[in-house]
Amino acid sequence: MVSLTTPLCDFGWSAPDFTLPGIDGKPHSLSSCRGPRGLLVMFICNHCPYVKAVLPRILRDCRELAGLGIGAVAIMSNDPTDYPEDSFDNMRRIATEMDFPFPYLLDASQAVAKAYGAVCTPDFFGFDAGLGLQYRGRLDASGKAPAPADARRELFEAMREVAATGHGPRAQTAGMGCSIKWREAP
């Protein structure tokens, strides 16, 4: 497992469009996932210890952000060939067991992850109401283990600011996680 850090925010960068299948059997698009005040796009997977460490916090924060007008979507772009825990069936199982409050989508071609420049799981992209990038940082100080319960909620605070002002904080700390498991070229 390779651990990577994300690039910092390129403020105003436009969210690439997508339409991907969800675990609910329906297609979901960039426009169907956005909220009136913004959108949080998350690249996650099932097997990554960084994701497992923070998934309950992601769910909590997304539920609260929905009340502020911020939509959320999770995209799984890993190649499940070598990581069967990331299969579509396991995506459905995890999302159902944990009651995901957002669509969980499969990027089987990995084209969406490439369009976004996603590098790891988790990788967070916080967009304003016009779908301009305002946050590209970490959830909080967690790593492979959850941060203390009183850790600053960096992503939540940033997206709350985006909902209120349309702008993200200038100071952002890069996220960290497992590398995306890219398909080998034929």
From TrEMBL:
Domain Thioredoxin: 9-161
InterPro entries in the cross-refs: AhpC/TSA, PRX-like1, Thioredoxin-like_sf, Thioredoxin_domain
Pfam families for this protein: AhpC-TSA
GO MF annotation terms: antioxidant activity; oxidoreductase activity
Family annotation (PROSITE patterns): THIOREDOXIN_2
Native species: Zoogloea ramigera
Classification via Gene3D superfamilies: Glutaredoxin (3.40.30.10)
Recorded superkingdom: Bacteria
Name by which UniProt lists this protein: Thioredoxin family protein
